[in-house]
Amino acid sequence: MADISLSRAVRWDTVVGALLIVVLLFSFGFVDGFGNALNLSFLIGNTLPIALIALPMTLLVVSGEIDLSVASTAGLSGAVMGALWNQGMAIETIIPICLLLGVVCGLVNGLLVTKLGLPSLAVTIGTLAAYRGIAQIVLGSDAVTDFPAQYLDFASGRIGDTFIPYAFLPFLVLLAIAVVALHATPFGRSLFAIGASEEAARFAGIRVKRQKLILFTLTGLMASLTGIFWALHYASARYDNATGLELSVVAAVLLGGIDFDGGKGTLGGAIAGVFLLGALQNVMSLQDVSAQSQIVVTGVLLVLSVLGPRVARQIAVVRAQSSG
Amino acid sequence: MTHPSTTGPAPVLALRDVSKSFGAVRALRDVSLELFPGEVHALAGENGAGKSTLIKTLAGVHRPDTGQVLLDGAPVAFHGPGDARDAGIAVIYQEPTLFPDLSIAENIYMGRRPRRALGRIDHKATHNATAALMERLGVELDPDRPARGLSIADQQIVEIAKALSFDARVLIMDEPTAALTGSEVARLFGVVRTLREQGAAVLFISHRLEEIFEICQRVTTLRDGAWIASEPLDGMTEDDLVRRMVGRDLDELYPKQEVEPGEVALSVRRLTREGVFTDVSFEVRHGEIVGLAGLVGAGRTEVARAIFGIDRWDAGEVSVRGRALVNGAPSTAMSAGLALVPEDRRAQGLVMDMSIERNIGLTGLRTTVKAGLMDRGAERSRSLDWAVRLQVKYARIADTVNTLSGGNQQKVVLAKWLATGPRVLIVDEPTRGIDVGTKAEVHRLLSQLAADGVAVLMISSDLPEILGMADRVLVMHEGRLTAEIPRSDATEETVMAAATGRAAA
Ligand SMILES: Nc1ncnc2c1ncn2[C@@H]1O[C@H](COP(=O)(O)OP(=O)(O)OP(=O)(O)O)[C@@H](O)[C@H]1O
Ligand SMILES: [Mg+2]
Fold it and tell me: Is Repeat found in the keyword set (chain B) (predicted)?
């Protein structure tokens, strides 16, 4: 049985999950071109970058921190991949180098936050600009497209005639790992404590700074993995890949009921939020809604997602007080 | 209870047949209470009896489900604490609610600070008024320092000053003295007596019964949310009051067992933190309970924090059972067998939004683990076990701790640390806000732990508790250890003399 904070979040989870199902059913029924396997595989493939980064971002927001530099890290990692490929390096060597670079990017964020005690919002707005700047220095305005075919096929192909992209399978494995890490391990439990009350967590012997450093590093790693995936999926490594992706990730995670103040939420809710956003974007594209309007919708959803859980909680409180 | 008599003054503030429930918990059932001008009225009852709920109902924080609040005999409906304040009711809540980033003066004069021409805030007037309040309470607190980092006792004093600054007709105080030592309490009582003579009505809650008998004229007792009695204190004994509260006679309050001390368990050598405490050395042996006494601000809590690794020390060393502790690392202190029950349960002891189960579970993240995953069954039985042993009064173990009464929250903090099976236990105000019955139970537990070989360092502002439980008393004064007094020589006089710096070791 869940404690109250969890059961409130579960309620919001359920709301988002139900909303996702409603949107999917509605789209199957009424949106032309939505239900076919090809479109669905596009939907999933286009949502995967958000989903991948949402995994560590959820853990980070639960612990009361945020990382806005993820899209720039992804862009940097794609740019370095393109530059090294142009140098003639083997892709099998390039990918580990890029992942290592992501680890370094995350570590820098983490050290600035934990060692200097700076707020993560400020730190990662700074590195958002810095990492993107480095990406531009590395690759200039080139677009690298000639990656090996089997990699491109893996990143953009789907399993036979099904709606499932190949890349969805490794994502499911990562999702399972993240769910277990957040909800079933002492590490995850400590993140909830840190997010709800950092001081009380410290007094309980939890190594707050170390846990945060681990999270920022993991986030950097996942961001660079996403950057590699992005470049291969769209067969294009450019310095401005994934620009603005951090907004979608944060919007989706908050929409999924992860409290911006930390300490609350479930990964299931966050992922439901991610795919809800993905489905809406897909439907809007099919309906020829302009890119600008799509951004407006994302913005409105972001505001609603911050308000929604609060309103739900208020209702729960009022109910608890008036009952009995 | 009897309704207002025709003789004598009318009650300024009263509750009539008030009930209040939180979900299935009936916190108040048909409770009545009358507060007369010129009286100090005690509200007594065990943890969770409904005292704070009653106060919040009087103050307009809670609305009664049924029944009425009467002001000057007429029913009123306060729509929030602001309404009650406008009606001349000042309230000190059980838990301080200061804004950490505002200064002490700003906290006290929040929203009603003296203004000069053009609506500019008059800082000087605010500062001086605050300084005058501090003077009246006999404490040295800089009005301009921020509230962040104030000890619980100092926060409590700021709350008292704030309540006094209203010049209220009714002063309601929910355990204002829980963290204060004798000299601060004496000052507070002086002020309260003056207010009473000026015709104010005062409602006072404390689990220190001697305080009730010292300052109050009448007492209302609650048990499990029900009204038991309202009566004059004249002629009553502490035992009578306890029987009213608990419904039975009480066991020995200080059940101290004689234990032959063993090896040195905790050794502190020349520990110094610049500007906070200096050159502190002492040892605690297995089986010993050592009391650490001193006035508020003497540095007792700060020493405890440094030993456990919350703050870093600048010089000196600490070892537990021969193993040197790492500076500033609570996790290594824990693995060495050290536990610290901190003074501030809401900020330091508990994650208020988390369940009872998980709060107790937080100290078991390394032990209730199977194959790297949380062992929920083990976590639950560990938490249940300790919640029951400490008699925590709760509806469900999965309820968040902020639904518990203050005393029951304190028990959860104790449970959380006792569950680690510590070899050295530091307790900072272990019984703050805990009722007499449970206090005896906590003392029995500490005594039993000592008998089982645990080394206990006990910080307490409650001098009788120190005298009753400690084998030795260490006394701090202005950041230094000034005396070490064996149990046989420890009296209120010897300890207070050392604590105020009147005697050297
Ligand atoms: N907001 C709340 N939600 C649910 N239950 C509550 C809430 N506030 C109080 N209670 C419950 O009401 C009962 C009375 O609590 P109250 O705080 O009034 O006790 P108290 O007499 O002040 O105890 P203490 O001496 O420990 O401070 C307790 O059982 C408590 O758990
Ligand atoms: Mg109370």
Answer: yes
Question: Is B149 in the A-facing interface, judged by CB distances under 8 Å?
Answer: no
How far apart are the CA of B47 and the centre of ligand 2, in A?
7
- Does the pLDDT of residue A7 top 50, yes or no? no
- DSSP letter string over B130-166? HHHHHHHHT----TTSBSTT--HHHHHHHHHHHHHTT
Residue type, A26: F
| 3-state DSSP assignment of residue A223 | helix
Cα atoms in the 13 Å half-sphere on the side-chain side of B279? 4
pLDDT of residue B5 exceeding 50, the answer is no
How confident is the model over A211-270, as pLDDT tens digits? Answer: 999 999 999 999 999 999 999 999 999 999 999 999 889 989 988 888 888 898 999 999
Nearest to B49 by CA among B408, B426, B445: B408
**B438 by DSSP, 3-state: which?**
helix
Q: Which residue has the tokens 């236990």?
A: B425
**A210 pLDDT more than 90:** yes
Q: Do B353 and A323 touch (CB under 8 A)?
A: no
Considering only CA atoms, which of B99, B56, B106 is closest in space to residue B81?
B56
Closest CA relative to residue B172, chosen from B151, B143, B201: B201
Distance B445 CA to ligand 2 centre (A): 23
User: Looking at chain A, how many residues does it have?
Assistant: 324
Query: What three-state secondary structure class fits B183?
Result: helix
For B205, phi and psi rounded to 5 degrees?
Answer: -120, 135
Residue A242 and residue A227 in contact, taking contact as beta carbons nearer than 8 Å: yes
Alpha helices by DSSP H, B366-462: 376-389, 406-418, 436-451
What three-state secondary structure class fits B14?
A: strand
Among chain A residues, the shortest Cα distance to B374 is held by A185
Q: Give the number of C-alpha atoms closer than 13 A to the C-alpha of residue B339, restricted to the C-beta side.
A: 24
| A305 neighbors A273 (Cβ within 8 angstroms) | yes
Listed residue (B333, B331, B385, B337) closest to B357, CA to CA = B385
The span from the CA of B67 to the CA of A274, in Å, is 50
Q: Which residue has the tokens 């006394």?
A: B475
CA distance B386 to B356: 11
Q: Which of these, A227, A242, A196, A199, lies nearest to A61 by C-alpha position?
A: A196
Listed in sequence order, the residues at least 6 apart from B262 whose beta carbon sits closer than 8 Å to its beta carbon are: B285, B286, B287, B453
Q: Which of A4, A184, A323 is closest, CB to CB, to B374?
A: A184
Query: What is the Cα–Cα distance from B267 to B285, expressed in whole angstroms?
Result: 9
Among residues 342-371 of chain B, which lie with CB inside 8 Å of chain A? 342, 347-355, 357-358, 361-363, 365-366, 369
Contact indicator for B220, B43 with CB cutoff of 8 Å: yes
For residue B146, list its beta bridge partners.
B103
| Contact assessment for residue B358 and residue B396, using Cβ atoms and an 8 Å cutoff | no
**Contact (CB<8Å) B330/A184:** no
How far apart (Å, rounded) are the C-alpha atoms in residues A11 and A2?
Answer: 11
What's the rounded Cα separation, in Å, for the pair B414 and B393? Answer: 14
CA-based nearest residue to A15, from A282, A257, A311: A257
A304-313 long-range contacts, Cβ below 8 Å, gap at least 24? A304/A255, A305/A251, A305/A254, A305/A255, A305/A256, A305/A257, A305/A273, A306/A254, A306/A260, A308/A12, A308/A15, A308/A255, A308/A257, A309/A8, A309/A9, A309/A12, A309/A257, A309/A259, A309/A264, A312/A8, A312/A11, A312/A12, A312/A15, A313/A8
* Tens digit of each residue's pLDDT (9 = 90 or more) over B422-465: 999 999 999 988 898 888 888 998 999 999 999 999 999 999 99
User: Which chain B residues are within 8 Å of A205, Cβ to Cβ?
Assistant: 330-331, 333-334, 363
Q: Which amino acid is at B64?
A: P
DSSP A261-285: TSS---HHHHHHHHHHHHHHHHHHH
